[in-house]
Amino acid sequence: MAKKVLLFADVGIDDTIALIYGYLSKQVDIIGVVADYGNVPRVMGLRNITYLVNLFNLSQHTKVILGAEKPMTGEDPIFYPEVHGESGLGYIKPPQQLPPQGFTENFCEVVSLINQHPGELTIVNTGRLTSLASMYILYNDLINKVKEVYIMGGAFWVPGNVTAVSEANFHGDPIAAKIVLRYANNVTIIPLNVTDRAIVTPQMVDYIQSKGKAKIIKPLLDFYYEFYKKRNPSIKGSPVHDALTLMATLHQNMFSFRHLPVYINTDSGVTKGQSIADIRPYADLNGEKTHRIAFDFNSNWFYNDFMSVMTGELM
């Protein structure tokens, strides 16, 4: 039976790769996507999700839900068109589609989806955590009945990608990240420690594109690769942070994990959004909550699974 997934996403390039992977995988059933701000403004994320749902003919199957527009910090969000393109989809300029007729604020649909799938729903959060944190504030008992929560976020003893120590999703709303990690149960964090090494090379992209199932992967990842090459000329391809997080829900044995307490710095400056794990073997945790954090993964497994799903050919 396919894993039922509710995706919270700020739909830029890497979220889109995760969506395509989920749509093509027989092991994943994406029943809903929450359109958040983050890589792009919320209205652009909604447009991008609508474009993808129509492109893959999933309009009758995947619920599209409006999420958060601004972070809990009260700040105006910062967007990164140099990373994801002016439209959020790299070289692709999606049509200026309007949402479905009558579409309006519908965040309570998250409650409906959880109630429809009690105890079997997996939440995957690949963007800022504002919407997910709102669920723990408003419906704590209900959302803790979901089966599991996977979060792409954090950087533990590796450089951040926004500041020297902070990863973008935690940095974008550290208050929300702190709330989620305080109240959520059965959380798995997939941080930059592993996602930075989930590389899709241009050769992989060209082969996937030649098979036609992934449709728009080349203009997405060509743009992404150009950005990453400017940042790091030695990089061999594009890291697919969010696709790896979705893959983790299916292939837990592909990763090595540690269960550790996690602290989020909500101060301003370079440490804003920093994720800190307590690795002291002698620490007295006094019953403090721990979360499962991925620190390594099998790159061959990643390659074989990603290529098999995206091409429809067993690798």
From TrEMBL:
<keyword id="KW-0378">Hydrolase</keyword>
<dbReference type="InterPro" id="IPR036452">
    <property type="entry name" value="Ribo_hydro-like"/>
</dbReference>
<dbReference type="GO" id="GO:0008477">
    <property type="term" value="F:purine nucleosidase activity"/>
</dbReference>
<dbReference type="GO" id="GO:0005829">
    <property type="term" value="C:cytosol"/>
</dbReference>
<dbReference type="Pfam" id="PF01156">
    <property type="entry name" value="IU_nuc_hydro"/>
</dbReference>
<dbReference type="InterPro" id="IPR001910">
    <property type="entry name" value="Inosine/uridine_hydrolase_dom"/>
</dbReference>
<dbReference type="GO" id="GO:0006152">
    <property type="term" value="P:purine nucleoside catabolic process"/>
</dbReference>
<keyword id="KW-0326">Glycosidase</keyword>
<protein>
    <submittedName>
        <fullName>Nucleoside hydrolase</fullName>
    </submittedName>
</protein>
<feature type="domain" description="Inosine/uridine-preferring nucleoside hydrolase">
    <location>
        <begin position="5"/>
        <end position="303"/>
    </location>
</feature>
<dbReference type="InterPro" id="IPR023186">
    <property type="entry name" value="IUNH"/>
</dbReference>
